[in-house]
Design brief:
- The structure is a single chain.
- The protein starts with a helix and ends with a strand.
- The chain is about 20% helix and about 10% strand.
- It has an 8-stranded parallel sheet.
- The protein has helices spanning about 5-10, 30-60, 90-95, 115-125, 290-295; strands at about 145, 170, 190-195, 215, 235, 255-260, 280, 300.
- The chain is elongated.
- The protein contains 5 helices and 8 strands, in the order ααααβββββββαβ.
- InterPro entries: LRR_dom_sf, SDS22/Internalin_LRR.
- Keywords: Leucine-rich repeat, Repeat.
- This is Internalin.
């Protein structure tokens, strides 16, 4: 076998390579070879990334578990529940209701202890006893209590005032007094002044049959019906009150003077038969027709 034939069988080439060109590549083969190398180099990171991704994918199927908190030397304070908001006031509570009367248990102790110095001073003056203890039995000898300047006297002591059974004149200070119940049994009272107080209920006066002069001006009184039986009244002042109806006064035949300035009274006809009336003050009231009063002989109508 010739060398030429052996070469062709071994290398599968038609002709043996030219010895002058055996180690060289053709110009077209060089760029293709270079491009293949470049692509292979570029694909190496992608292949590596694909391998890493393939290894990580199985772990992504499981939900991540929270890391255990690191131990801390400081324990966080427990969260405090927010303080409960105060309950909303009901509509009834929004309206100011009158204060409840406190229950008082009175002891008949001796000597008497006075809660207000001005009251004690007036009592001592009446009893002519500037010093020393005052026995409860002595209070019935007090005839007049002039308390007009007793500042801070906001109530009538329910344990002391009922003991003034001989009282004929009581003159209360302007202020916060609003309850006349402690004097409802003082049936000898003839003159009473409660003007410029918070008194609204006159029912404790219904039994004071000897009452001759009464001043309830500048109070929130609106109802005069408790006075209907006080037939000994000769002077009555109701200035600047809430009174609108004078019919409870129709039977007060001894009434001589009536002051009703700056009230809401508009009708004076209930007074037409009170022949003892001498002076009526209607300044600032709503009276438009005073003719029922003009029929009373000798009356003076003060209109302003």
């Amino acid at each position: 076998m010739s060398l030429d034939t052996a070469f062709r069988r071994r290398h599968g080439t038609a002709t043996p390579p030219d010895p002058g060109t055996a180690g060289r590549r053709s110009p077209a083969e060089v760029p293709l070879r270079a491009a293949s190398c470049i692509i292979a180099a570029m694909n190496r990171p992608l292949i590596f990334a694909s391998l890493v991704l393939a290894l990580c994918l199985p772990g992504c199927d499981e939900p991540s578990k929270p890391a255990a908190p690191a131990a801390s030397a400081e324990v966080a304070p427990a969260a405090q529940a927010p303080s409960a908001a105060p309950p909303a006031a009901s509509p009834a509570a929004a309206v100011s209701a009158p204060p409840k009367r406190r229950e008082v248990v009175c002891t008949k102790s001796d000597p008497v202890t006075f809660a207000h110095p001005a009251l004690e001073a007036r009592v001592r003056q009446q009893l002519q006893k500037p010093e020393g203890p005052i026995a409860r039995a002595q209070l019935k000898n007090v005839k007049t209590l002039l308390l007009s300047d007793a500042q801070g006297l906001d109530e009538l002591d329910p344990c002391i005032f009922p003991e003034f059974t001989g009282l004929k004149g009581l003159y209360l200070p302007p202020g916060k007094i609003d309850d006349l119940n402690p004097i409802k049994g003082l049936t000898r009272i003839e003159s009473l002044r409660v003007s410029a107080t918070l008194v609204k209920d006159l029912s404790p006066l219904a039994g004071l049959a000897k009452l001759d002069r009464l001043d309830i001006g500048r109070t929130p009184v609106s109802d005069l019906s408790p006075l209907a039986g006080l037939t000994n009244l000769t002077e009555l002042q109701i200035d600047e009150t809430e009174v609108t109806d004078l019919s409870p006064l129709a039977g007060l035949k001894k009434l001589e003077m009536l002051q009703m300035k700056r009230t809401r009274v508009s009708d004076v006809s209930p007074l037409r038969d009170l022949k003892s009336l001498k002076n009526v003050y209607i300044e600032g009231s709503r009276v438009d027709d005073a003719s029922p009063l003009r029929a009373i002989p000798g009356i003076k109508i003060h209109e302003g």
